[in-house]
Amino acid sequence: MKKKKSVFNHSKSAYIMMAPFLVLFVITMLIPTIMSLAFSFSDVSSSISFVGLQNFKDILRDPLFFKSYGNVFIFMIGSIPITIILALVFAVLLNKPTVKGKGFFRTVYYLPAVTSIVAVSSVFLTFYNPTGLFNTVLTTIGLEPIPWLSDPFWARIGIIIISIWLNVGYYTVLFLAGLQNISSEIYESADIDGANSVQQFLKITVPMLKPVILMGMILSTINGLGAFEVPNILFKNGFGPESSAVTVGVNLYKTSFEMVDFGKASAISWTMVIVAAIFSVIQFMVGGKDNEA
């Protein structure tokens, strides 16, 4: 009897300690999610009326909807592979026992991840100006200045550069944590067998970091779909030249807060959920086999 009472008391204590988190979760996550789903099937104006799939039909007829997704896919294709590769290389270099000042370099690499995106975008905006740092360097070495903010191609390149700069450090630390779990004996055995550094990287490091790399790619995809701050800071309207910088996040913001159409905005947000889920499943199917390796 005492044992049952003790178990009951422990369970009661656990629920009491979980209560603040559960209350916050319900208020800040669950209720808004349910309301957003309901709004996506409703006309939200002076009153709320059910319209079925009309909001989804409307956004699918909007060329800007597909333009925003097209831009996001370009940004992800241009930034995610480079980010992952650079982060892997930096993590391997920082994991070498012969490297001095590891703590300093880890801090330096991780700083962009904890720096305000607004501040970073504002700094790069000054760099991208016609007389900014980048064009000054180019003209100094005899090259033509680049129209970073007025040409669609270079506007996209500019956003990709900022995305890489912001994310490399975070994934470097993530991969570095994964490398800590790989036994040094495996590399010692490879050394004895005559494997060089490149072979060890391709045959040992990458396969054994596969689960971490997969997680990094999924996180990058989800973050990329919700990109908002960078294009909105670089371009006052968030669209850029010929709408080359507009993202799904920018389109969502404009629809909800400028057009004040919360029904369509909710529909757009749920397409982001669906696309993120599809990409995650595809990445698990392609890269998640033998994930326990």
TrEMBL record:
It is a multi-pass membrane protein. It is found in: Cell membrane. It holds the Pfam family BPD_transp_1. Keywords: Cell membrane, Membrane, Transmembrane, Transmembrane helix, Transport. The chain crosses the membrane at residues 21-41, 72-95, 107-128, 153-177, 212-234, 267-286. The keyword Transit peptide does not apply. It comes from the Bacteria. One of its GO terms (cellular component) is plasma membrane. One of its GO terms (biological process) is transmembrane transport. Belongs to the binding-protein-dependent transport system permease family. This is ABC transporter permease. It comes from Vagococcus fluvialis.
